[in-house]
Amino acid sequence: MAGEIGIRMALGASAGNLQAVIIFETLGLAAPGMLLGATAAWALARLLSGLLFGVTADDPVTLLGMLAALTVVAAIAGYIPAFRRGGDPAVALRAK
Question: Does position 47 have pLDDT exceeding 70, yes or no?
Answer without folding.
Answer: yes
